Amino acid sequence: MSDSSASNDYQAIIDKDQSLLWHPYSSALEPSPVYPVGYAKGAKITLKDGRELIDGMSSWWSVIHGYNHPELNEAAKSQIDDFAHVMFGGFTHEPAVKLAEKLINFSPEGLTKVFLCDSGSVSVEVAMKMSLQYWRSQGKPQKHRLLSLRKGYHGDTFAAMSVCDPETGMHHIFADVLNKQIFSDSPTVGFDEAFTEDHIRDFKQQIETHAHELSAVILEPIVQGTGGMNFYSPQFLQAVRTLCDQHDVLLIADEIATGFARTGKMFACEHADVTPDILCLGKSLTGGYMTLAATLCTDKVAFGICSGEVPVFMHGPTFMANPLACAVALKNCEILERGEWKQQIQHINSIMKQELTPFETIDGVRDVRTLGAIGVVELEEPVTLHEVQDWFVSEGIWVRPFGRLVYIMPPFVISPEDLSVLCQKLGKVVEKICAHQTTKR
Ligand SMILES: *Cc1c(COP(=O)(O)O)cnc(C)c1O
C-alpha cells in the first residue's frame, strides 16, 4: 500500500465514523476529533497513519498490563477454542469458578459471594438492587434510598446516574425521572492530611437524619475519579464505615476505577482497612481486554436477601459470567498475583512526582497531586477538549483532559523513559493551554 492510499484510508475511516457513530458524550452535529488506531502494544498506541502515541490513560483505567499482552492474548485464544460463551443459567464453567475464587482471595476479608455482570454501570445497578432487596427481605422496604458523596461518579445508567454528583452527573436534565437520593459534601481532607471530626460533620448529619430511609451509602473509596480526581484520607472512609454500622446502613464501595492496584494497594479500601458490605469491580478486571464487571457481597447481604419473601436475588444478564471475559480476567489476576505491580507503581509514582510537581508554578495551574499510579494536574479553568486534543496527539502522547483536570494513569508496564517523556510533553501542552486561557481572559 502506498503512503497516499494509507492516508486516504485514514481520512475515510474518520469520515465514515463521524457520519455513523456516537462516541462517549459526543455531538451528532459537531463531531469531536477521532483518531483511528491501527495497533497497540505495551504502553504505545499506533495510529493507522503510523503516528505513535505514549498512552497516559490506560484506556480509562483499564489496560493495566499494557496492550497486546502475550499472556492475556493466550488466555483469550485458548478459551475461544473451547467455547466463547455459554449461558450462566444452569451452566457453570472453570473460568468463572476460578475467577470468583481469586476475587474472594484478593478482596477485603469478609466478602464471600460474587455476581459477574457486563459493565461497571451494571455492577453498580446490581449493588444498589442488592441493598434494596436486602432491606425488603428484612421487612424494612422503607430503607430504599442511597447516600452518596458529591463529586462521585458511578456510571451512566439511570440508577447509577441518580448517585452521581448532582451537577456533573447531569441531574438537572433528568431530575424529573431520577430517583431522589441523598448527598453529602465531598471529602475535603487530602490523602495525607490530618483528619478531624469537622471533615465528617456533614456526612454524619445526613446519615443521622436519613438512616430510617437509607439502604446504603455508596462511594468511591480514597479516590473520587471522574467526578473530580479527589484523593481523600483513609480516616474519612473509616469514619464512614463506623457511622454505617451505627446507623444500620450498608456500605457499597465502588472500586471500578481504583480496584486492581491503581492506588498502590490491590483495593483502595485496604488503605483504611475497611471491608464494605458490597464491592463493585470493573474496568481493569480483564486487564482492559473486554467488558466484565463484578459485584461482591458478604454472607450477611447474600443470605439476608435470600431469606425474604422473594428468596432469590432478582438479576441475571444474558452475558453473565461470559467465559471468554472470565478467562482473561483470571489471567489478569494471576499476573497481579506475581506482585510486580508493587514496584511498577512505586516507580511510576516517584517519576510522576518528580516530573509533574514543577508544573505547580505554571500560571493557571491550581494543584498537582499524585497517588499510586495516578497523576493529576488541576487547572484554574476548564479545558475545551475539541481544541486541545490535537495538541497532545501532536506531541505524541495520549491524554484526555476532563473539565479542569489533566490527568494520567498509565499502564503499569510503561518504561521510565516513556513515562518521563509523557510527563514532559504533558507539561508542554499544559503551558500552552494556560497561556491560551490567559489570552482569552
Ligand atoms: C467507569 C466507572 C463506572 C462505570 O463503569 P462503566 O463500565 O463505564 O459502565 C462506575 N463507577 C466508577 C467509579 C467508574 O470509574
From TrEMBL:
The record marks Y25 as: Participates in the substrate recognition with KAPA and in a stacking interaction with the adenine ring of SAM. The modification N6-(pyridoxal phosphate)lysine is found at K283. Substrate binds at W60, Y153, K283, G316, R400. It catalyses: (8S)-8-amino-7-oxononanoate + S-adenosyl-L-methionine = S-adenosyl-4-methylsulfanyl-2-oxobutanoate + (7R,8S)-7,8-diammoniononanoate. The keyword Cytoplasm applies. Pathway: Cofactor biosynthesis; biotin biosynthesis; 7,8-diaminononanoate from 8-amino-7-oxononanoate (SAM route): step 1/1. Its EC number is 2.6.1.62. Its cofactor is pyridoxal 5'-phosphate. It is an enzyme of class 2 (transferase). Keywords: Aminotransferase, Biotin biosynthesis, Cytoplasm, Pyridoxal phosphate, S-adenosyl-L-methionine, Transferase. Pfam families: Aminotran_3 (PF00202). It is found in: Cytoplasm. Its main location: cytoplasm. Pyridoxal 5'-phosphate binds at G120, S121, D254, P317, T318. Belongs to the class-III pyridoxal-phosphate-dependent aminotransferase family. BioA subfamily. Homodimer. Catalyzes the transfer of the alpha-amino group from S-adenosyl-L-methionine (SAM) to 7-keto-8-aminopelargonic acid (KAPA) to form 7,8-diaminopelargonic acid (DAPA). It is the only aminotransferase known to utilize SAM as an amino donor. This is Adenosylmethionine-8-amino-7-oxononanoate aminotransferase.
